[in-house]
Amino acid sequence: MPAVARSVVDHPLVSLVVAVAIIYIALLLGQSADQFLQFSMNGVVIGAIYAITALGFNLVYGTVWFFDLSYGAMATLGAYSVFYFTARQVHTVGRGDINNLYLNIFMGILIAGVMGWVIYTWIYPELRRRINPMTLSVVGGLVALAAGAYTGLILAHPTDLNVFLSPSIGVLVAFSVGWVLYNTLGSVRIGGRTLLLVLGLPGSLALGAYCGWLVAENPGTRLYLSWAMGAILAGASAMAIYRGVYFYLRRQARSPLVMLVGSLGFLLSITALISIVFSPDGRPLAEPFGTVPWNVAGAFIKPFQLLIIGMAFAIFGGLYLLLNKTSFGTAVRAIGDDEEVARIVGINTPVVIAIIFFLGGAIAGLGGLLLGEDIGIRPQMGLLLLLKGWIASVVGGIGNIHGALLGGFVLGMVENYGVWYIPAQWKDAVAFVLLILFLSFWPRGLLPRR
After folding, report:
1. CA angle (234, 120, 133) in 5-degree steps
2. Is the pLDDT of residue 125 over 70?
3. How confident is the model at residue 185 (pLDDT cuts 50, 70, 90)?
4. CA 49 to each of CA 91, 153, 243, 274, 326: distance values in angstroms, whole numbers, following the listed order
5. Which of 29, 47, 162, 181 gives the lowest tally of CB atoms within 10 Å of its CB?
């Protein structure tokens, strides 16, 4: 029997807990099959959001091994980014035109700084032997400033998000198609390069231009483009926090407590700033597609909620391939096992960790905005979502993306089944009782990291 199974099954209380759970579920099913199915569907949907949050949390925690409280703020930032771009689509009195000059400037500077660091750290070392360093520095600086100005321009015109992003969409599509064609036709010995130049290059440029035009002419894409912007801004903010603060704290303080206090400061500060800019009241987000529920065997589920479930598995699949099938994933796992040894063998640990923080922040922002699309947003949502993601990680197995996925769905189901006889406001209490049980008896979770 695998170690994961022995760690759980060999515990003397497991049989009792499993028996009680089976009896309880059978009792609920016997009382009302329709209601049981509805509670199950609700549990799967909210469990998918918990799983997404736990995936990003476990990705970061399993690499740097400290509890980053600012991760919750990234979830809030992602959700409010969507509100920033789509406020006019929501009927909220006095909040139909959200546009803050200082916020636009700050985020522009942040993106410029992140882009400048990326160019200096990744691109500069590769090109400085072939290009004059001064020329390279000037060009890199101009590119970073252009990225920051472009971001500020987009934020300054939130109602034209689809128009301002259309060139980027076109370039991205053209580059992606061109890359695929290059790797496909470039390997053909006879006529491959000719086909690439005659058909591939013009075709990719034409397709990119067409996709950009479609986005610019369709305002309905603004909501979904705001999702991408929310994830990018959250990821860039997480990377900036790591490079600007955590990187130096980890080297100087070398104390998990100092890191915890520092991340708590970021969580509280960002939450307070969001409350000041957007008000502390809860807000709805613009409705996405599929808000009319389907009736499935007496229970109701929205098509949009099916997308949430699908995205949880898609993110898990993407992270699995990234961590297990790429050299970058090998570097991440090496850092998670022993960062000092990874540095000694030549892994650029600051760069790898920065990428992990970006990915973790982007996933957190995505989880926050998906939750906001389902139940609305408020400035304090990040802390609760962080705690739920952490509980899901503990239940499934902390530092393990498999455990994060399983733990998220388990937590969602337990929460919903747990409030069958009590008010729904007790869901959080049910979640914390589950956390206490696992910390007391199964601290490694259902799928512990090997």
Report:
1. 160
2. yes
3. low
4. 26, 31, 28, 22, 26
5. 29
* Dist. CA 213–CA 173, nearest whole Å: 12
Residue 213 confidence (pLDDT) above 70:
yes
Tokens of 261: 């206090």
Chain mean pLDDT for the chain: 85
Q: How many CA atoms lie within 13 A of 251 on its CB side?
A: 8
Average pLDDT of 251-255?
Answer: 75
For residues 278 and 98, is the Cβ–Cβ distance under 8 A? yes
Q: Which long-range contacts (CB under 8 A, 24 or more apart) does 354-357 make?
A: 354/117, 354/239, 354/242, 354/243, 355/239, 355/328, 356/59, 356/60, 356/63, 356/64, 356/332, 357/60, 357/235, 357/238, 357/239, 357/241, 357/242, 357/246
350 contacts 246 by C-beta, under 8 angstroms: no
DSSP state of 326: S
Question: Are 415 and 39 spatial neighbours (Cβ–Cβ below 8 Å)?
Answer: no
| Euclidean distance between CA atoms 137 and 246, whole angstroms | 26
* Interval 269-315: pLDDT, tens: 999 999 988 888 888 888 888 778 888 877 888 888 999 999 999 99
Q: List, as one string, the DSSP characters of 257-288.
A: HHHHHHHHHHHHHHHHHHHHHH-SS-BPPPP-
pLDDT at 194: 63
> Mean of the pLDDT values across residues 401-425?
89
d(CA 226, CA 89): 12
In a 13 Å sphere around the CA of 150, the CA atoms on its Cβ side amount to 16
Question: Residue 214 pLDDT more than 80?
Answer: yes
Is there a contact between 36 and 29 (Cβ–Cβ < 8 Å)? yes
Write the CA distances from 176 to 179, 220, 318, integer angstroms. Answer: 5, 24, 17
Structure tokens at 439: 């910390």
d(CA 396, CA 317): 17
Q: List, as one string, the DSSP characters of 337-348.
A: H-HHHHHHTT--
Q: How many residues does the chain have?
A: 450
In the structure, what pLDDT confidence band is assigned to residue 92 with cuts at 50, 70 and 90?
A: very low
**Distance in angstroms (rounded) separating the CA atoms of residues 209 and 298:** 46
Structure tokens that stand for 283 in this block: 């807000």
Q: What is the per-residue pLDDT for 400?
A: 86
Q: For residue 325, count CB atoms less than 10 angstroms from its CB and return exposed for 0-12, middle for 13-18, buried for 19 or more.
A: exposed
299-301 and 294-296 strand pairing: antiparallel
